[in-house]
Amino acid sequence: MEKIYVSTRDQNRKMTSKQAILEGISKDGGLYVWPDIDSVQIDLHTICEQSYKENTYTILQPLLPDFSEEELKTCIENAYGHSFSSPDITPVKKVDDVYVLELFHGPTSAFKDVALTLLPQLMSASLKAGDQKAMILTATSGDTGKAALEGFKDVDRIGICVFYPHQKVSQIQYRQMATQQGKNVKVYAIEGNFDDAQSKVKSLFLDEDLRKKAEAQNVILTSANSINIGRLVPQIVYYFESYKYLVNHGAIQLGDPVSFSVPTGNFGDVLAGYYAYMMGLPVKKFYVASNANHVLTDFLTTGVYDRNRAFVQTISPSMDILISSNLERLLYYMSGKDTKLVSQCMSDLSKTGRYQIPDTLLQKIQFLFGCAYLDDKKTKETIATVYQESKVVLDPHSAIAYQVAKDAKERPIVALATASPYKFSQDVLDALHQNSTNELEAMKQLQTICSDPIPKGLKALESQEIRHKEVISVEQMKDVVEKNMEALL
Ligand SMILES: N[C@@H](CCOP(=O)(O)O)C(=O)O
């Protein structure tokens, strides 16, 4: 089978899509990319006539060519057949003059479900016949963790450890993870922030000693974060789906360009949009919408990526990130696949916390990518204004995308709504000037003004016992992974 994926840091490290999914991250620290992704041009006319599941097949088949037709169609059916509460999977709503793409109708009420209902299927199909097993290590700032736990729960031959920053996720996000059931799952709070968790997880994938111990047990260590190409590619689909909506509702003619505003921390979601663009989606501009951790806004404005700054805890915790992993993939493509430049930038980042790209490259990126950020005060004001004017309740992450879309000059524009407001009930109520005693009560209170009911999974939290209580240091992460390779698999 053709090895179409290479590392962002070395063209000669080649993998099939199944191998890339199983490895998660390249052994040289780079991320897997398909250099010729733009050789695939998706027919928009077909997209506008097909269902979500059919479009998923059309888009993913060329990206995952070593999956048989039957394998891929079964994976897609298992992922989207019955787990989403909306028949459209990712419905679109017009709110004033912005189209809001709702990505939170999956089992855990965040956009991560779109990929994490499918990745476990792809991973299982990629495992070699026999008794090869996989141990998933996931760092989360709040949403990925729960979606990964739910997706991989009790999947045969796969175990999962999730690491989240202690007391730096919302109360509901915490409960979602701490109550997780399943015989193959473990959840740890770590003393540190998301960047500490993600950096340690990445280093564990490259840890020779751990890798050897895993190999001895026929276990492969891999990732459910968007550094894994199998996590990223399912997210391309909803960009095409929103385009389908706009065409089929007469907002645009086939071929007209559209802009997107994407709330992002790890740069995975907006990168999936860029992949859609490379595969033929007509896009005018992508707006990278950030919170007070605006390292991406600064980078896109100046060309200097500098994580040497205070880490701010915000009401949009899923975006509380200063090391934005997937930017590496954008640099790879935008620099004309210059693996030397990418390697140099990433080496500078790990040594000094900073890198700078050439002006020509910055200008090329700025031609397609805009940026802006909102602090918590502005985010709350947006939640209040949108509710007052449109009776729509947005979660803090989606509110940031919405306001950045509002401030942009391009129309039509789609703002990605990445989480249900119920996941951040107390902060949302606070923005609406309502008091609440705790997050579970706040959810009930929010229900009185939200058009959607409390999602099933969130409603159940009240009666579920806390099963995962351990708080560990970053240094202990390797030990718990080793321990769980035996215990969970
Ligand atoms: N925002 C994420 C952080 C991890 O990012 P991912 O793109 O690797 O999933 C979260 O909510 O955990």
Automatic annotation (TrEMBL):
This protein's source sits in the domain of life called Bacteria
Instruction: Give GO cellular component annotations, separated by semicolons.
Output: cytoplasm
Q: Which residues carry this modification: N6-(pyridoxal phosphate)lysine?
A: 112
Q: What name appears for this protein in its UniProt entry?
A: Threonine synthase
* Annotated catalysed reactions: O-phospho-L-homoserine + H2O = L-threonine + phosphate
**In its keyword annotation, does this UniProt entry include Amino-acid biosynthesis?**
yes
Q: What cofactor does this chain's UniProt record say it requires?
A: pyridoxal 5'-phosphate
What EC number(s) does the entry state? 4.2.3.1
Q: Tell me where in this chain the Tryptophan synthase beta chain-like PALP domain is found.
A: 94-410
KW Phosphoprotein (keyword) present: no
Q: In which pathway does it act?
A: Amino-acid biosynthesis; L-threonine biosynthesis; L-threonine from L-aspartate: step 5/5
Tell me the function of this protein: Catalyzes the gamma-elimination of phosphate from L-phosphohomoserine and the beta-addition of water to produce L-threonine.
Spans traversing the lipid bilayer: none
* Keywords tagged on the record: Amino-acid biosynthesis, Lyase, Pyridoxal phosphate, Threonine biosynthesis
Biological processes per GO annotation: threonine biosynthetic process
Q: What family does the database annotate? A: Belongs to the threonine synthase family.
Class of this enzyme:
lyase
